[in-house]
Design a protein that fits this description.
Structural class: alpha+beta
Radius of gyration: 22 Å
Shape: globular
Strand content: 15-25%
Length: 519
């Protein structure tokens, strides 16, 4: 067991000390959040066979990871809301008694970091010092989590300084669940191989997040869906604000009037593409504030103000192309971590529907050779000379359908820097929201756009929204339409009925009812 480092904040020390004693890591590293530290961890992972460094001339500062085949997406079936009363978790969540769950998970955590390094990640969800921003401490044994959290959140010494001696934070614990015996060689992607051994658990009353067995983004980067949506949605209900699965963008008219819009779509349904869209209407300008999560609070003037609590983009690679989203491709040209895409012979990356001709040969997301399609240069197959029809019939994909890029938001060429830093009229308040959209992926029967008549009508329409299930989640329902109210079905931190009630009550606590709501 390593010696627990001292922290100015006694609650931070207590949290780290608790897990040090239970998980028994070989050493503890407190993440400082510097570029030099980030690069050193990435290079260590290259040396250990967990990262592949990409061609610095083509993708400076970029790396590729390949996950285990059992660990490629969120696992909704192993995601739990452990409220004291089952009814408070509601019908859409998996529930377990919090006392029983903690007992079960503590048994799994015992000795789970043996042979590994425990990393302590102080992180901010939102610009440090902004009144809407919240803070977290994630303890993890995954360097992959560290470097991705460095991109997706603000990490390091500045967060500890902001917390001071008694600042509040969300305590988070994560382990890949793969202790190492003395002399045992590590694998490229450590995780629990059986899905039944994975736990992604939120304790809404305790405001804690416990994760075990998975190294994948949504299950392991605990600032993202676990904190920013599940825990934050419960905090928002209790405190009178909103935590939503929404992009935020800025529209500027030819007359230079600005509008700020949020939009809720399920994962892998086009939020990133819309957030970075190139307008075709003459004189209009679109800028990105965030592509996935919005926190909204009523301001002193009664309007809803929003920040993007994240610091980067955890984007779905397949389908991101020069046609669909050239700005996303530009965003991942440098300092980006790719997961489960194709490695080309010249040290670059590729994926299906990238709009770029496939290399003659490459290495697919499983680490196996793949080859350019015989009659379609934009496809790859597992064997030389395969036709497009043969590849389609085999179900083969060279890049996993949920392969990802983790890119710094600052890379985005259309980033609204003031809005991204939560500034409006030079004040740290977030941006005032003018319109809210609800949408999804539907094959037919739904009007392209229709407008709600009132706030209450808009809440009804958002609550009734449906969308196809995508590869962003491990599921046997991919392609089937399911109800996904406000695109929040996998992310409610409490009873969905109380969530709808909270939306209705927000009309009375702000002037948000004057906002246009589109669906």
């Amino acid at each position: 067991m390593a010696k627990t480092p001292k922290f100015a904040n006694a609650k931070v020390f207590a949290w780290v000390d608790k897990w040090n004693k239970l998980c028994t890591p070989d050493k503890i590293v407190v993440v400082k959040g510097t570029k030099e530290e980030h690069t050193a961890i990435c290079e260590m992972m290259v040396k250990n066979g967990q990262f592949i460094k990409l061609n610095d001339k083509k993708r400076p500062g970029c790396y590729l990871a390949r996950s285990h085949e059992s660990d490629v997406a969120r696992v909704e079936g192993r995601t739990f809301i452990c409220s004291k009363r089952e009814i408070d978790a509601g019908p859409t969540n998996h529930w377990m008694d919090p006392v029983e769950m903690k007992k079960k998970m503590e048994a799994a955590y015992k000795g789970c970091m043996k042979g590994r390094t425990m990393y302590v990640i102080p992180y901010a969800m939102g610009p440090i010092g902004n009144p809407i921003t919240q803070y977290g401490i994630e303890v993890t044994d995954s360097p992959y989590v560290v470097v991705n959290m460095n991109i997706m959140t603000r990490t390091g010494d500045a967060v500890l300084k902001q917390l001071g001696t008694d600042g509040e934070f969300i305590p988070c614990i994560h382990s890949v669940g793969a202790p190492l015996k003395k002399g045992q060689k590590d694998v490229a992607w450590p995780c629990a191989k059986n899905i039944e051994d994975k736990y992604i658990t939120q304790f809404p009353e305790d405001r804690q997040i416990w994760s075990f067995g998975s190294g994948y983004g949504g299950n392991a980067l605990l600032g993202k869906k676990c904190f920013a949506l599940r825990i934050a949605s419960k905090m928002a209900k209790d405190q009178g604000w909103m935590a939503e699965h929404m992009l935020i963008l800025t529209l500027t008219s030819p007359e230079k009037k600005q509008y700020h819009v949020t939009a809720a779509f399920p994962s892998a349904c086009g939020k990133t593409n819309l957030a970075m869209m190139l307008p075709k209407l003459k004189g209009w300008k679109l800028q990105t504030i965030g592509d996935d999560i919005a926190w909204l609070k009523p301001g002193e003037d009664g309007r809803l103000y929003a920040i993007n609590p994240e610091n980067g983009f955890f984007g779905v690679a397949p389908g991101t192309s020069n046609d669909s989203n050239p700005n996303a491709l530009k965003s991942c040209k440098k300092d980006t971590i790719f997961t489960n895409v194709v490695l080309t012979a010249d040290g670059d990356i590729w994926w299906e529907d990238m709009g770029v001709k496939a290399p003659k040969e490459g290495v697919d997301w499983k680490g196996n050779p793949c080859y350019i399609c015989k009659d379609d240069p934009y496809r790859m197959g597992p064997k030389p000379g395969m036709t497009k029809a043969e590849i389609k019939a085999s179900g083969y994909v060279a890049a996993h359908k949920n392969s990802r890029f983790t890119a710094p938001a600052i890379n985005c060429p259309v980033l609204d820097k003031a809005g991204f830093e939560g500034m409006y009229n030079k004040k740290p308040t977030g941006v005032p929201i003018d319109a809210i959209l609800f949408g999804g992926r539907r094959p037919s029967t739904i009007p392209l756009v229709n407008e709600a008549k009132s706030w209450t009508h808009g809440v009804f329409m958002g609550s009734a929204a449906g969308s196809e299930v995508t590869a962003a989640v491990i599921s046997d329902q991919i392609g089937q339409v399911r109800r996904d109210p406000m695109a929040m079905l996998p992310f409610f931190g409490y009873n969905v009925a109380d969530y709808f009630q909270h939306w209705l009550e927000m009309e009375r606590t702000s002037e948000a009812w004057s906002t246009s709501i589109l669906t």
